[in-house]
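Exercise 7. Given the encoded structure of a 274-residue chain, write a plausible sequence.
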């Protein structure tokens, strides 16, 4: 389908028989990946969600995939947030749903959070590898995971559910990138600012599913770290944290996608009211 200014945004829409009764889902990609998502992640997600009765829309940002570049250049974060709002409008109009869940990966989680803070149609967020923040324990574990003593290193890695042996023994980490350029492209909020944004949504009743992988093991590397790092969010019923240390950032293997889909299915069934 096409929507937005002059129908310039291109997306793939699936409307189910239950579309008006259950929340619709907008799937966002990240970076320069098209609406199919990295390793066709969004395609598989859309099929899984449709099987559970949810209408879905996955779309290309302006300048990505089949959507032409926006006529007027401006602040990218503001533009993406606006385009996400247009995608919500399109899904609501096409499916008849009144509630929406947003799914974002990496940088797209920023746009999901920003849109949700302004749009009360958003009742759920799925944040795949959002910003993470190191603490003293993750720093110690990172050092232990690099120990030269093989037996001790393997023991620590098994405890953390990190890969052990062969080429896979390399510490999972984010791709190398010029830090100054990355910070300019995606400014990182302070830990307090990030937690405050989530607190605001949780207080409004928005359901959150936060999934961390091995993507940024230099910052986030053990189960329970999210609660340790953000104590103000600990114990709240409407936030669920999932730790998938053996999965990579783009869920490149089928079994990685299956574990993500299983976590998402449980969360939808237990926390999102139909």
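Solution.
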């Amino acid at each position: 389908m096409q929507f937005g200014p002059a129908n310039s945004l291109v997306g793939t829409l699936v409307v189910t028989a239950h579309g008006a009764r259950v929340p619709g889902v907008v799937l966002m990609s990240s970076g320069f990946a098209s609406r199919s998502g990295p390793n066709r992640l969004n395609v598989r997600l859309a099929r899984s969600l449709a099987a559970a009765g949810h209408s879905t829309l996955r779309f290309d940002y302006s300048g990505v995939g089949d959507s032409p570049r926006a006529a007027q250049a401006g602040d990218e974060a503001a533009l993406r947030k606006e385009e996400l709002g247009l995608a919500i409008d399109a899904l609501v109009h096409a499916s008849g749903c009144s509630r929406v869940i947003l799914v974002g990966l990496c940088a797209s989680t920023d746009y999901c959070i920003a849109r949700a803070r302004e749009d009360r149609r958003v009742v759920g967020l799925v944040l795949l590898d959002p910003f993470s923040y190191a603490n003293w324990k993750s720093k110690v574990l990172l050092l232990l995971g690099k120990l030269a003593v093989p037996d001790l290193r393997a023991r620590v890695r098994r405890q953390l559910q990190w890969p052990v042996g062969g080429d896979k023994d390399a510490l999972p980490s984010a791709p190398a990138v010029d830090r100054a350029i990355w910070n300019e492209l995606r400014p990182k909020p302070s830990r307090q600012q990030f937690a405050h944004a989530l607190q605001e949504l949780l207080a409004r009743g928005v359901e959150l599913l936060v999934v961390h992988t091995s993507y940024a093991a230099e910052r986030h590397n053990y189960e329970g770290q999210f609660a340790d790092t953000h104590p103000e969010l600990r114990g709240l019923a409407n936030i669920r944290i999932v730790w998938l240390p053996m999965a990579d950032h783009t869920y490149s293997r089928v079994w990685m996608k299956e574990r993500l889909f299983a976590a998402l299915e449980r969360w939808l069934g237990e926390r999102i009211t139909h």
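Remark. Residues 73 and 79 are 9 Å apart (CA to CA). Students should compare their own answers with the one above.
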